[in-house]
Write the structure tokens for this entry.
Amino acid sequence: MKKTSLIVLLTMFSATAKAEEDPELLALHTWTAPEITVSGKKGDLLQNVTGKESAVLNPSQMSVYKVINMMPSISQQSVDPYGLADIVNYHESFRFRGVEATAGGVPGTTANVEGLPVTGRPGGGVTIYDLENFENIAVYSGVMPANIGLGIADVGGKIDMEIKRPEDKFGVTFKQSRGSDNFSRTYLRIDTGDLGGGLKAFASGSTSYADKWKGYGASNRNNLMFGMTEQFSDKVKLEAFATYSKGNIHPYKALSYAEIQNLDSAYETDYSNDPARYDYYGYNKNEFEDWVVMANLEVKTGNNSKLNIKPYYWSDKGYYMESITGSKVRRWDIDHDLKGILAEYNTKLGKVDLDFGYLYHTQERPGPPTSWKNYTVSGNSLLFGGWAILSNSSNHELHEPFIEAKYRTGGWLLEGGVKYVNYTLPSILTYATTGIGDVSYDDALAADPAIVAAKSAESTKTFSRLFPDVTITRSIGDNSSVHLAYGENYVTHVDIYPYFISQYVTFSAHNITFQQLWDERKMEISRNLELGLKMNGSDWSIAPTIYYAMHNNKQAIFLDPDLGISYPMNNADATGYGFELEGEYKPSSALKCYGSFSWNRFCFDENIRSETGALIDVKGNQVPDAPEFMAKGIISYTVGEFTISPVVRYSSARYGDVQHTQKVDGATLFDLDLTWSKAMLGFRNVDCSLSFINLFDKKYVSLISTSDYKTLNSSYQPGAPFTVIASVAVHY
């Protein structure tokens, strides 16, 4: 598979600048030095974040989404400079080309690890990894090959994280970071080197803590990771990885549109420290404990063929507690897991490279939720107010075989494939809760409560469909290429369940059961077309791309004209289109410049119904929380052992509602990273860095809690103020 690579972004170490003159490194074509490599692959926008430069984009090294937010058409918003408490509606605030991939209660994240869907939501699985333990983060937007983006959903795009394997030689990395608001993080990794018999291993641990930059409360997270590889022979290799993470998080209070009209005041507004109030910060927190194990058995079956078998398991336990409308506090207990296995066979048939595979994946609810308990405030404590939801524990199930092929002739490259998605939504049994007190979920089920048939879907719902992709690439001389690509992606929304339960009285009055609505669920399908050009000069590279996407069965508010009831259904169409441009310029080994620009339009093709049933004029309106224009850039200049890297990001205006009545102004943010690096005192390297986030203390709105189809009740959060982070890392 040919890669046309653009070496971009920055040089953090003087050793990197010197390595550019090393012919052995140049022969690798794909850099593993501390830089960002951007590669065009199969007509997709594939970008790899490699090495230590991710510390510039996310100094705390705890959020994959912060690391990739320089890429075109990626909108990532944050309220927490460290990534510990970036929570909005139980998922990351993140969009590919205007598409919010996890909207609508999708029980999966946009990030895979080693090609496996081992991160889930809701819960604590989104940011359970230390980024120092990863060497590549690949970002795919729009068209994706069949063997990429495996899992419950891949609409919009996908992120794939590659674990840094154990080193060949013994080594120790120790890193200490301190920052604003009592931020502290300690990270340690030990690589054993070759222990004999082809066995190598690593173990790492980290502990992180930060006060909130406003209000009361703090967040902390502790992580452990272990990895080993065993080379049994030239043909057989076994790899295994395990991760443990425990976090205790106090989020920031979401604000109304009226409150953010005065940003000076909004920057000080947060939860109360009075336990007699329902918005007390102690009633707004979450705590999760996660375990992930995965393995890879690789067997070479020939000179051009190999078999990989990858089993995996993820467990997530914890809870969300939050103040909700109506002066109530809700506790959402979560205890779920997922597991599966990916078998993949790569071979060569004549001049055709083939990749066959099959993924089996099963994932326990939530989402949608299995239990909610409500509390009221009585004096200085909480008083149990009853169960809002009590339902069974059931599983999503996915069968996903695929095939991807590649054929090259002359200056032409033809790539294409297809995956078959057989996805079954879980059955949902809702129980009567009368007489059940404030007990655990297991004890509540042990009481053998009666099933409420009208609130249940005893029958499952299955979707089956083929999803093709094809890309034609034509080389133009030695340094340029043009590609045309088409592919189809998918997602299924499951938030109809809590919506139905909360409005049950109204639905029941019109004899509408949950089974009826569950049976009407449809899979949202996007059809993506893109045309791209890549050109390289001796010291510059440029990559413009245009794309067009049609989304069918997009979720929107549905009004039953006979019954006059509104609820979210997959019955709308939407269109996305835009332009992306990336460029880099390297006038010398000491200076590198990278920039990206994107114009993204994503809007409904028709008017939709509001939650009150009124027909609203939204045709052609940009969906909420999706900036139309973004521009980003970074310059990296190295003098001896010192590197300075200023970063700028611009995002145009967004809206908090689909009717565009709640406008949020655009913002331009500046960051600055100063790094000094040198081999000294017997260490392979000593790295000292000083990072300034939001350098000019810009007041702006960051997170917007909404959805593409909502017309009411959006909420907002200001972005983090000026923040300083200092780090020292030693590598032995």
Notes: The chain is about 5% helix and 55% strand. The mean pLDDT is 86. Residues 576 and 601 are 5 Å apart (CA to CA). The longest strand covers residues 566-588.
